[in-house]
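A.,

Following up on our hallway conversation. Structure tokens first:
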């Protein structure tokens, strides 16, 4: 059986840009693998030069050689993925495994987050992680149920999460929310790994609880391995379609430009050691400098949610990513109108897991240090916004901190226009993401705010000029009953979704359908350009009405259309086409190339019109303008030709005709 350490040695070597000799195997005790490499490591906004030594018996971590002078906080990990693909189950498994492996109370349950200390990561990962070779204190998983914790949250101009896990069901592959997450990851340049979940559902799978994935993979039958390989490579293909190069993480040679795919089972725990190992390795290697914080400095964080809590009133669920916040601290919070200046009345964290069901849900603590999830109780928080910054003032001037919060809010300020759609979203970050998506689709936004859809939002949507903008787009928000009723009464269209691009696509589909209906209505009522020739020996009746055989040269000839003959640069109207027959059957119109008989009310054949004459539809100037400026792409090429020729004739007399 293959030694499971082989993949991890390969992972480490490739992570550091080292090519292992083909004969190298970690189980070969006599083989020493020595490699010194100097390389540039790049990601979204930094480059670090490191020298790495990989030697016999090394594990994947190899502590970063860059020196740090401050305290190191825990990396913040967000979990993304489509509904039902196992995000919550995976977090539950990580939490559960850690509780089993760790001492009682080793897992710290935070508000909206779970902290897994390094020693517990090491216990879960086994020999894959040597805690003495890591400086970072562990991992903090954001796990607010149902919350768009990654896509909607920001910290100082970037994503709140330092790294992300994209959970994908190996059986389902990419789904709408998966594609949404991929777009956001791409836009923010956030490093991520893919957890290919539910490997235990492959028919014939023989589970090995909580084991590393290569170990359990080797224990499967050839057929099961083949089935899993097929599913994994379909997933890798979908990532490729999204412009991401990826492979199973132990095969990746360059993690700077390739995404590692980690097969896991949230049900059996298989692959969870690998997932924690890779997350710790990536954070240690690439993010150590960014994890440096001044623990004693004033706290800085981001609001996850604004909640009413019995006994405390309006509270904030906050992810603290820098410094320390204490009871009694003066804080500044981003509000719907202006920043809120208030004082921390209580800092709350959930009781430990063993006590979670007791009546007292929270413990009151004197202070919390980054990185952490906590609940802040303070006065005057009613107008606080999810996704907004939270800053402890400390020994600084409060006005300076207010300006700092205002500057961060300005980064997500939405530019609105006088005409456009009304937008509501659950947090500042999601509002920003939605408005950006609308801008990309060239959809103007008249109003954009955080919060549920209220009657006043519907009233705002009724003030637009264009019918297609008489809509309200709501992302991950509730529509109040009174607002729903008002929208129905006022004929305002509501669009709701928890997937941004679906919301945009639904609106675009609505606009396309509305425009198509409008064009169809215009086509029904507009005079269409056409010219036709009276055929020789095809006079069936001379007058009252004249009935003649004609050939349509170009355009569309319709019933009840005035027609005339061009004399110089003038059209001399001769009558109105009252009826059209094709082989004895009445029809509404005749197209270019058709030979039909027409009845023309007004002229007499031989006096007003002659066989061989070319007649034109008498096109009203307003209709010509609409056809040229709005419908030119909608009409057939021969009809455009007839329109162009008619306009040329009219504009010889009046250059501005139809403009």
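Then the amino acids I'd put at each of the 659 positions:
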């Amino acid at each position: 059986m293959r030694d499971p350490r082989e993949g991890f040695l390969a992972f480490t070597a490739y992570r550091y840009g080292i090519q292992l000799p083909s004969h190298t195997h970690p189980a070969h005790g006599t083989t020493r693998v020595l490699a010194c490499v100097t390389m540039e490591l790049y990601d979204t906004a930094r480059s670090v030069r490191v020298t790495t030594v990989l030697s016999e018996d090394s594990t994947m971590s190899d502590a970063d050689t860059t020196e740090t002078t401050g305290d190191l906080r825990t990396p913040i990990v967000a979990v993304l993925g489509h509904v039902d693909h196992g995000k919550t189950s995976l977090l539950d498994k990580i939490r559960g495994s850690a509780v089993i492996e760790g001492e009682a109370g080793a897992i710290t349950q935070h508000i909206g987050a779970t902290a897994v200390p390094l020693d517990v990561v090491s216990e879960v990962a086994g020999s894959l992680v040597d805690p003495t070779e890591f400086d970072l204190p562990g991992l903090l998983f954001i796990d607010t149920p149902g919350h768009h914790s990654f896509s909607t949250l920001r910290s100082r101009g970037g994503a709140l999460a330092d790294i992300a896990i994209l959970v994908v069901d190996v059986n389902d592959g990419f789904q709408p929310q998966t594609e949404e997450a991929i777009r956001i990851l791409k836009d923010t340049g956030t490093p991520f790994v893919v957890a290919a979940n539910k490997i235990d559902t492959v028919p014939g799978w023989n589970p090995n609880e909580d084991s590393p994935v290569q170990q359990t993979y080797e224990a499967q039958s050839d057929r099961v391995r083949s089935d899993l390989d097929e599913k994994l490579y379909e997933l890798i293909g979908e990532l490729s379609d999204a412009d991401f190069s990826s492979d199973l993480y132990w095969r990746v040679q360059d993690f700077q430009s390739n995404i590692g795919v980690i097969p896991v089972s949230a049900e059996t725990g298989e692959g969870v050691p690998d997932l924690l190992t890779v997350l710790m390795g990536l954070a240690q290697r690439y993010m150590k400098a960014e994890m440096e914080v001044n623990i004693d400095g004033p706290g800085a964080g981001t609001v996850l949610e604004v909640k009413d809590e019995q006994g405390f009133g309006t509270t904030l669920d906050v992810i603290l990513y820098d410094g320390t916040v204490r009871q009694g601290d003066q804080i500044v919070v981003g509000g719907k109108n202006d920043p809120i200046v208030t004082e921390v009345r209580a800092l709350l964290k959930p009781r430990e897991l063993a006590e979670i069901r007791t009546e007292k849900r929270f413990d009151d603590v004197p202070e919390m240090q980054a990185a952490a999830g906590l609940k802040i109780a303070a006065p005057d928080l009613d107008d606080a916004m999810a996704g907004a910054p939270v800053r402890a003032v400390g020994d600084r001037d409060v006005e300076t901190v207010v300006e700092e919060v205002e500057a961060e809010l300005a980064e997500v300020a939405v530019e609105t226009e006088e005409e456009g759609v009304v937008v509501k979203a659950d947090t500042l970050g999601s509002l920003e993401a939605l408005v950006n998506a609308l801008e990309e689709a060239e959809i103007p936004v008249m109003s954009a705010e955080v919060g549920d859809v209220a009657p006043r939002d519907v009233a705002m949507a009724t003030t637009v000029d264009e019918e297609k903008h008489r809509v309200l787009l709501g992302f991950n928000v509730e529509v109040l009953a009174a607002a729903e009723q008002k929208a129905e009464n006022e004929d305002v269209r509501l669009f709701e979704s928890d997937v941004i691009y679906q919301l945009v696509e639904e609106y675009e589909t609505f606009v396309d359908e509305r425009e198509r209906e409008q064009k169809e209505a215009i086509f029904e009522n507009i005079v269409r350009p056409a010219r036709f020739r009276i055929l020789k020996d095809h006079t069936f009746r001379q007058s009252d009405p004249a009935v003649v055989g004609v050939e349509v040269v170009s355009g569309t000839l319709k019933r009840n259309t005035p027609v005339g003959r061009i004399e110089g640069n003038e059209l001399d109207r001769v009558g109105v086409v009252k009826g059209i027959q094709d082989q004895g059957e009445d029809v509404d119109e005749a197209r270019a190339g058709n030979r039909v008989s027409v009845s023309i009310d007004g002229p007499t054949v031989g006096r007003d019109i002659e066989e061989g004459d070319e007649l034109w539809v008498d096109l009203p100037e307003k209709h010509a303008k609409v056809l040229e400026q709005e419908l030119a792409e909608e009409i057939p090429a021969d009809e455009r030709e007839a329109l162009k020729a008619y306009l040329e004739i009219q504009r010889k007399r009046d250059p501005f005709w139809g403009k």
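The CA atoms of residues 650 and 656 lie 9 Å apart. Curious whether your intuition agrees with the design.

B.
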